[in-house]
Amino acid sequence: MRTTLICGTSLAVALLAAGCSSSPGPGQAATPSGGCGIEAPSGLVAKGYLTYGTSLTMPPQVTQKNGKPSGSDIEIAQAIAQEMCLQPKFTNYDFQGILPAVNAKKVDAGVATFGITPERQKAFDFVPYFIGGQAMLAKKDKHLKVSGIEGVCGHTFAVLSGSVELANLKTAAPKCPGGKSVHYSVYPSMPEIIQQLLKGSQDLAYVDWTAAAEAVKKMPDQLALASGIFSGRGASTPPNIEGIAVRKGDDQMKTALSRAFKSVVKDGTYMSILKKYGLERGDVRKRVSLEKS
Question: Which of 36, 80, 203, 250 is most deeply buried (CB count within 10 A of its CB)?
């Protein structure tokens, strides 16, 4: 399995400040020993680098460890860059700032649990790499259980700004009877959402299933899952596929990323990463034919 050395900023800065960057330090080569398998796209933001916009606040997929970008999405993105003999570089934003940065050519691509939705596909192209899904998270001592978005009436929610969950609350939440309406508040990061639950200012957090599972894993005495995994668009609708976002019509970038990802899958790196983080149920091959993507 490939390894990439990247320098980082402090955890506090990574969680609270937008626009900080992490990349390999001087003399730290990210080139795989076997040579380049995929031709790198032209017009990169920084020569020799594949620059990703991300939000390092959603473990286990995108987070920090020992001051460096970490998580399953980060490792997949690193492996993709290395297939092109490029060094991976990560620029940290609040979640809602990543896609505008992609469009403004501040980064080459965005990787941060983006669900591939019809709305997003109008403005961006995607390389699918993971099966997503949503879940409800609650403070353990509240003993809350809901069916999914169908059971939100009468509860208050914390939700991530710019997320699929926020879009679903706006469009798919049921019509609730008087006195049991849906009330939600929007926050810029997962740590702030967790803080609201622990303070008791919100009943539930409506977030990605991986983020909810990781939060319970880290705080089992304080947090609990309040639902199963669902799509947020109705009981019979499957969860979103997540993808790396690129500028609409940038076929060269999309093709290079797609070819590199297929190579990472073929050589076993992809499954090794999923197993490392306990995310095997997110294997995109269960829902997407890579030969057709």
Answer: 80
